[in-house]
Amino acid sequence: DQQVKQNSPSLSVQEGRISILNCDYTNSMFDYFLWYKKYPAEGPTFLISISSIKDKNEDGRFTVFLNKSAKHLSLHIVPSQPGDSAVYFCAASASGGYQKVTFGTGTKLQVIP
Amino acid sequence: EAQVTQNPRYLITVTGKKLTVTCSQNMNHEYMSWYRQDPGLGLRQIYYSMNVEVTDKGDVPEGYKVSRKEKRNFPLILESPSPNQTSLYFCASSLIPGQGYGSYEQYFGPGTRLTVT
């Protein structure tokens, strides 16, 4: 049972345009969400996160939006750059003693120069 | 430099031959975890540890063992590897999730590519 889903395995975007990566979750106990970026032959690196008490968090070119009622979050990258080409994973966790972290399947982003 | 190290980076072995993948972190993190990455399945958590001598199962623990005798080390043990354990493995560490700013952010090692024939 995939509790965190990224339904788009891949996405291509022109340099300078907006990239939107989506993530859906099913477990209503999740209250903290993260995005990680992964280059080939490297481990994932943390990108941005959001708590369920917020609906938006921004860090430079990266913004994460959370829609709790829809159990949906998205990562916006504006403007997209070729160096953003990577696999992006969303992840979710629940506080209150439940310390597992559940990752999505990943979306491969290609930014075309 | 803050880092998580894993060894070996690449390993080819045969079915049934016990192996250990080591993981070490130098950030004094309480929380450590092992994941496997498989095509179309993303990252799946195998085991995690909240502190020394405290470990718990993740989503796919079958066929794996872990131990946490020291805070910095969290080895992954495959006592009788099988071909379905061929995968890319990542170790990660963090503060205890939910306890403080940035506590959910995990630092990952570079990965260990395991092939079991």
List keywords for this structure.
heterodimer; A: 113 residues; mainly beta; 6-stranded mixed beta sheet; 5-stranded antiparallel beta sheet; 11 strands; globular; B: 117 residues; 7-stranded mixed beta sheet; 4-stranded antiparallel beta sheet; 0% helix; 49% strand
Report on the architecture of this protein.
The complex is a heterodimer of chains A (113) and B (117). Chain A has 113 residues and is mainly β. Chain A has strands at 4-5, 10-14, 19-25, 32-38, 45-51, 56-59, 62-67, 72-77, 86-93, 101-103, 107-112. In chain A, the strands form 2 sheets. In chain A, strands 2, 4, 5, 9, 10 and 11 form a 6-stranded mixed beta sheet that branches. Chain B has strands at residues 4-7, 10-13, 19-25, 31-38, 42-51, 54-57, 65-66, 76-78, 87-94, 107-108, 112-116. In chain B, 0% of the residues lie in helices and 49% in strands. In chain B, strand 4 (31-38) and strand 5 (42-51) form a beta hairpin. With 117 residues, chain B is an all-beta fold. In chain B, strands 2, 4, 5, 6, 9, 10 and 11 form a 7-stranded mixed beta sheet that branches. A 4-stranded antiparallel beta sheet of chain B has the order 1-3-8-7, with no helix packed on it. The radius of gyration of chain B is 14 Å and the shape is globular. Chain B is built from no helices and 11 strands. The model of chain B has no long low-confidence stretch (mean pLDDT 94). At the A-B interface, strand 4, strand 5, strand 9 and strand 10 of A face strand 4, strand 5 and strand 10 of B.
